Amino acid sequence: MNRIGVAIALSTLWVTAAFATPQKSVVAPKLVGTTWLNTKDRPVESIKEFKGRVTILHFWTFECINCKHNLPSIAAWAKKYPVDQVQVIGVHTPELKEERNQKNLQEAITRLGIEYPVIVDNNGENWNRYKVEVWPTVFIIDKKGQVRAYWVGELGWKGATGFQDLSKIVQTLIKEPG
After folding, report:
1. Ranges in the chain, pLDDT < 70
2. E strand residue ranges, 54-134
3. Which of 14, 54, 105, 112 is most buried, by the most CB atoms less than 10 A from its CB?
4. Alpha-carbon distance 177 to 1, whole Å?
5. What is the CATH number of domain 26-175?
6. Three-state SS for 62?
7. Cβ distance 149 to 140 under 8 Å?
8. Residue ranges of domains in the chain
9. CA-CA distance, 139 to 31, in Å (whole number)?
10. pTM of this prediction?
């Protein structure tokens, strides 16, 4: 599979936002792992299925301030769309030791008000499958399971229009046939 990640501009310790649409069709890798949180009564197998609805994947970790800044946008998408039209999935890939503890993660999910499904990616398997390099990263996957866009960094970093740009893509993808 071709590299999905983008060149990241680093300036001291600050990461700038990067937006891209793949130049050619890239199949979204299947999510791997058995520990899911916030699945409610939904079977995990149906959540992992990327076909038939648009999927928004948010790679994050709970101590990352940049990830926390993206959470209101991710929550807005989860609230706006019915799950059979657009599903939102958090992929929690920890950076720090305390983020690997599932009890700490569950407490953070509750404290941060996250209501959509979250897969625990403690070993970074999904991180590596998607070639993620930076927290946070958001992928938009179409109804056929193809990565159609991604955003690296905060959606609103220094006036960036990530939420608006990705929202337009989601709206377009909803209208496409499945």
Report:
1. 1-17, 23
2. 54-60, 86-92, 118-120
3. 54
4. 25
5. 3.40.30.10
6. coil
7. yes
8. 26-175
9. 13
10. 0.89
